[in-house]
Write a structure and sequence with these properties.
This protein is of the alpha+beta class. The protein has a three-stranded antiparallel beta sheet with strand order 2-1-3. It is elongated and about 45 Å long. The two termini are about 15 Å apart. The mean pLDDT is about 85.
Length: about 90
């Protein structure tokens, strides 16, 4: 059975393609910087604060996941084209 993990989902409300998970106690500042960069790059002239949404959420890593932080890092890497396959 998958164990739910509390996260905050940082997402761009303009296009919806950008989203990043932040574990509780994680580096929200870094996620907000990356999301702000996305808004400035992909939606020039948009108000960054208005474009971002911070949503309390729950993630479900695979049941056999030994390192949730690594799983979250891999999930987030899809935004930057650096993702390696997650174990299934």
């Amino acid at each position: 059975m998958q164990t739910p993990v509390a996260v905050t989902y940082v997402r761009c409300a303009r296009g919806g393609a950008f989203g990043e998970l932040v574990l509780d106690g994680g580096r929200m500042d870094l996620a907000l910087t990356r999301a702000g960069d996305h808004v400035r790059d992909m939606h020039p002239g948009s108000d960054v604060a208005e474009a971002l949404r911070l949503v309390p959420d729950v993630a479900f890593p695979p049941a056999d996941c030994a390192d949730v932080a690594e799983w979250v890092a891999q999930y987030n890497a899809r935004n930057y084209g650096t993702q390696t396959p997650l174990p299934s």
